[in-house]
Amino acid sequence: MAFQERQRVEVCVRIETLPTSYYAGNIISVLNRNEYIVRYETRWKPNNSTELLAEVVKEADVRPFPPTPDVIPTIYQNGDRVDVYYGGAWRIGTVLNRVFPLYKYNVRLENSGFNLLCSFYRIRTHQEWINGNWITPAALPPLPPPVPRWR
Q1: Where is the signal peptide (predicted)?
Q2: CA within 20 to 30 Å of 80's CA: 16, 45, 56, 143, which one?
């Protein structure tokens, strides 16, 4: 998919042993068919906390900004795949349980085993951008079980 200047997007950042993160940003320049310069909305230049980071990213790591969820909050069930807004990015996780009577959820982040207690407004249904369409987890095949890490 070709993106255009000033288009709002999410950039996937993958770091081993950390949860996959999606940072919001805007395309500020199209370099070629496969590369863009993106200015992030919540990532800052190193050693300069007053200027937003802009960097070259590959098209494979860019997706359009997901559609806005319904106004009515979703009630998530144990095991639902969700995105959690944490540390300026959306991170993929799994709902462990809902905390009553609060509208909060315990969520385990993928690839890290880190658990968060999240308010409902910091959670959205996880979606994948596949072949130009947004696909929800119900339409995706189940994930394989995690591979144990030997220490």
Answers
A1: none
A2: 16
Q: What is the pTM of this model?
A: 0.81
Distance CA 118, CA 93 (A): 11
Number of independent structural domains in the chain: 2
> What pLDDT shows up at residue 96?
95
Query: What does the pLDDT look like over 89-105, one tens digit per residue?
Result: 999 999 999 998 778 99
Q: What are the residues whose beta carbons fall under 8 Å from the beta carbon of 81, sequence distance 6 or more? A: 92, 93, 94, 125, 126, 137
The pair of three-digit structure tokens given for residue 64, joined into one six-digit string:
């359009």
Q: Let me know if 48 is exposed, middle or buried by CB neighbors in 10 A (0-12, 13-18, 19+).
A: exposed
Last residue of a domain, one of 64, 93, 109: 64
CATH code: domain of residue 117: 2.30.30
pLDDT at 61: 93
Q: Contact at 8 Å (CB) between 134 and 68?
A: no
